[in-house]
Write a structure and sequence with these properties.
The protein is an alpha/beta fold and 115 residues long. 38% of the residues lie in helices and 23% in strands.
């Protein structure tokens, strides 16, 4: 396991897609490691990036900002970004900020990979 501020992030290549699964809360302390990982992955210009949030019970505004930044980077690289498997608490953060209208959110990873 990683140290306190490093986030455990699984990365898996699936055909032309990259599946990223952060594990644990995404907060001010941990969002920089997620940000740098997403930036690194987007640097390789995958056709599709799926961020599986099913193992993220909580996300603060810094985590949301990290995903907004990744969305902007993905658009500039012609990469489709999907958020999958949001838990209720995380989904409500996106809905309150009206970001559920900005991001493509799917119920699970398979829906995102098949989209």
């Amino acid at each position: 396991m990683s140290s306190g501020n490093d986030m455990d992030i699984k990365v898996e290549n699936r055909d032309d897609s990259v599946l990223v699964t952060p594990i644990g809360e995404v907060d001010l302390a941990r969002s920089p490691s997620l940000r740098s990982r997403l930036k690194q992955i987007l640097g390789d210009s995958p056709a599709r990036l799926v961020v599986d949030l099913s193992q993220v019970p909580y996300m603060d505004s810094s985590g949301v900002a990290t995903l907004v930044e990744a969305l902007q980077q993905s658009r500039s690289r012609n990469c489709s970004l999907f958020l999958a498997g949001l838990q209720d608490r995380v989904r409500s953060v996106f809905e309150i900020a009206r970001l559920d209208t900005v991001f493509t959110i799917t119920p699970d990873v398979n829906s995102a990979l098949d989209a």
